[in-house]
Amino acid sequence: MKAILLRSILENTKRFSILALAFFSATLAFSENFRVRKIVPLALQGLNEKLTVRSGVNDALLVTLPKDLTYISGIELNLKIPEEIVSWRDSVAYMLYEKLSPEPAENEQSYYGERTHVATIPGNFSLTIYVPLSSDFSIKDNPYSVKLPSPSDFREKGIFLRFMMVMKGVPESLENSQIEITASPVLKNKGSLKLSVTPSPDEDKKYSVFIDDKPVQDYGNKLLSTGEHHLSIVSDSYRNELRTFRVEQAKTTSLEVSLRGIEPLLKILCPKDTKVFLDDNPFTVTSEPFAVTQGEHSVKFILGDYEIIKTVSAQNGRTYSVSLNVDATINEEE
Questions:
Q1: DSSP code of 261?
Q2: Phi and psi at residue 24, to the nearest 5°
Q3: What is the dihedral of CA 105, 106, 110, 113, to 10 degrees?
Q4: N or C: the chain end with fewer CB closer than 10 Å?
């Protein structure tokens, strides 16, 4: 007899829970007045931060976000469900609100806002809730998590998640139970390139920047997918420059490129104490290449009684190296 009575009570309470959820779902898009017992604040500030709070059944969680959301695609909420709520599955609902009035505050209990999502907590000891904040949110739907709609005012108001009892006849211990909530940002699979090019382009000397063969206009701080990328700078006034760089998740990669003139460059290599003449003029050899005019140039080396002359036909955009090698050979004779 007791078993039949208990089964009847459970069926009635479950029916009430389903009817209540159906009512909430039917009125999902409408604004409403409501009260909460208290606001549980949770302020996220860092990209790799994890914060844990405890919320009662009739409380509301307020997650405030970092000011810089460049690398954040959403928020992950991991709920640790107490045994009382698990035993009475679907007895507690969670609801997402936006456009709240007044501004959520710890000492404020009465609100008016638009409910955008409602569901009951299932009979599991954990629940993962995702709140996407950008189109770059990449976590796919799966049976072990719930993805909520993005609040339209999350930048100003944060994320407001309300908990509410939706089943009557539950034990008092259920009403006093606490849900442990851990919040953390979901990072985009992207990083930034901070590119600095000198000199700056002018009307007479322009250049074009390409990243992965695509033209880029705003390259001062470019958001890119993680991994290896290729940079090319093309110009009729400067030498073309090629670079390969890597982008790490949620980090900025700095790259500086100094453009070189298009005039030919010449580098001379020779042994110490060698006399060098460039176009019949004495020349002091340095370790760095130097600019010459386009056309033919002669390089004469004099080392002791040894003299050799080489001619270079220099073209714009090219670098040339002229080397004098003095070698000795050893042969065994019979």
A1: B
A2: -60, -40
A3: 40
A4: C
